[in-house]
Amino acid sequence: MTNYEEYAVLDSQIKTLTAKKDELKAHIIDDMLERSEDKAETAVGSFTIARLKTWTYTKKVAELEEEYKARKAQEESTGDATYVEKPSLRFTQLKL
After folding, report:
1. Would you say the C-alpha torsion 10, 49, 44, 42 has a positive or negative sign?
2. Residue 52 to residue 36: CA distance in whole angstroms
3. CA distances in angstroms from 7 to 3, 10, 86, listed in the order given
4. E strand or H helix at 14, and its extent?
5. Could you tell me where the beta strands, DSSP code E, fall in the chain?
6. CA distance linking residue 32 with residue 49, whole number of Å
7. Bridge-partner residues for 48, per DSSP?
8. What is the per-residue pLDDT across 36-89, written as a single tens digit (0 to 9) for each?
9. Distance CA 53, CA 83 (A)
10. pTM score
């Protein structure tokens, strides 16, 4: 098996496993919330419900963000901003 083929196989497996992990995570969270548990100790490790904040900002902050994005684009177009190019790999799997 070539490096290219091995990469393609691993990429496919990772996508499948990530989808399965996300599905299991949702079930575990639902189960723990249903039982009013924030932590579950198991033979394979502990599972803890983390409380993540999702912020909603005022219109003023949204306007400032747009102004910031516009300023970045302006500096990119005028050459005031600088960049460094790094090699990166993009893989597009064949549709079967």
Report:
1. negative
2. 17
3. 6, 5, 20
4. helix 3-34
5. 39-42, 45-48
6. 8
7. 39
8. 999 999 999 999 999 999 999 999 999 999 999 999 999 999 999 999 999 999
9. 32
10. 0.73
